[in-house]
């Protein structure tokens, strides 16, 4: 939650980290987008997640789902499938999470860490995007983004980012911020968020000595990004 909030602040967004059901009616109408992250899923928090997503759907505002460890337990998979049924604008997960959601069954996933490369999940992502009528993003060495028809790959970032807890959660939050700015072009906003977060990681890695210092420099680099740097370094390509 800490890294997600700092990522959003560094990018110029204004986060509110809310999980109390009674606060949803007050907070949700003020938000330009919603990010639902099931990382700390519990029976107490799930109703608030559902209520917030339902409120965003009613208001016509975008919302983004991060199905953390979706296939790790039956409870978690069922909750994620219920959330998918509320028509998120974007679903962002690792390869194992997207494959588990697409198959809608508990598979041999590795929890939060992915045992599948993003490219392994491409067909599952396309199928999920078509079935749920949303954009699906799969994080990996190449970040895959698809709406069920179009597929692009964002190839920015460094391997060390996988050694920092919550980088995946943070880029999902960043996607929500980008989609809030341009909800009519959610596909392009999703690809841009993934690429820009990766660029910040690349720049941060030039100064980092390991995961802890990369975490700090990642936030600083995201805060300091300018248009010229983004245009020079962005690496998004159409995939077959």
TrEMBL record:
SUPFAM superfamilies: Ribokinase-like. One of its GO terms (biological process) is thiamine biosynthetic process. It catalyses: 5-(2-hydroxyethyl)-4-methylthiazole + ATP = 4-methyl-5-(2-phosphooxyethyl)-thiazole + ADP + H(+). One of its GO terms (molecular function) is ATP binding. InterPro entries: Hyethyz_kinase (IPR000417), Ribokinase-like (IPR029056). HAMAP family: Thz_kinase (MF_00228). This is hydroxyethylthiazole kinase. It comes from Actinidia rufa. Keywords: ATP-binding, Kinase, Magnesium, Metal-binding, Nucleotide-binding, Thiamine biosynthesis, Transferase. It holds the Pfam family HK. Gene3D superfamilies: 3.40.1190.20. It is an enzyme of class 2 (transferase). Its cofactor is Mg(2+).
């Amino acid at each position: 939650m800490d890294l997600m909030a700092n990522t959003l602040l560094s990018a110029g967004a204004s986060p509110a980290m809310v999980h109390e059901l009674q606060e949803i009616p007050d907070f949700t109408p003020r938000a330009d987008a919603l990010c639902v992250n099931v990382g700390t899923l519990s029976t107490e928090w799930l109703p608030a997640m559902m209520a917030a997503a339902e409120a965003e759907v009613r208001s016509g505002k975008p919302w983004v789902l991060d199905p953390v460890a979706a296939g790790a337990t039956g409870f978690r998979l069922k909750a994620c499938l219920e959330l998918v049924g509320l028509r998120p604008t974007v679903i962002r997960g690792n390869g194992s999470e997207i494959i588990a959601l697409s198959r809608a069954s508990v598979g041999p996933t590795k929890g939060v860490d992915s045992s599948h490369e993003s490219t392994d999940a491409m067909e599952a992502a396309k199928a999920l995007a078509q079935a749920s009528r949303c954009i699906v993003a799969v994080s990996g060495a190449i970040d895959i983004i698809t709406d069920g028809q179009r597929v692009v790959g964002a190839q920015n970032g460094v391997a060390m980012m996988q050694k920092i807890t919550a980088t995946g959660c943070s880029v999902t939050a960043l996607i929500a911020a980008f989609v809030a700015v341009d909800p009519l072009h959610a596909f392009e906003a999703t690809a841009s968020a993934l690429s820009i977060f990766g660029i910040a990681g690349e720049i941060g890695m030039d100064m980092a000595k390991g995961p802890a210092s990369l975490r700090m420099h990642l936030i600083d680099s995201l805060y300091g990004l300018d248009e010229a740097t983004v245009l020079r370094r962005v690496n998004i390509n159409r995939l077959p």
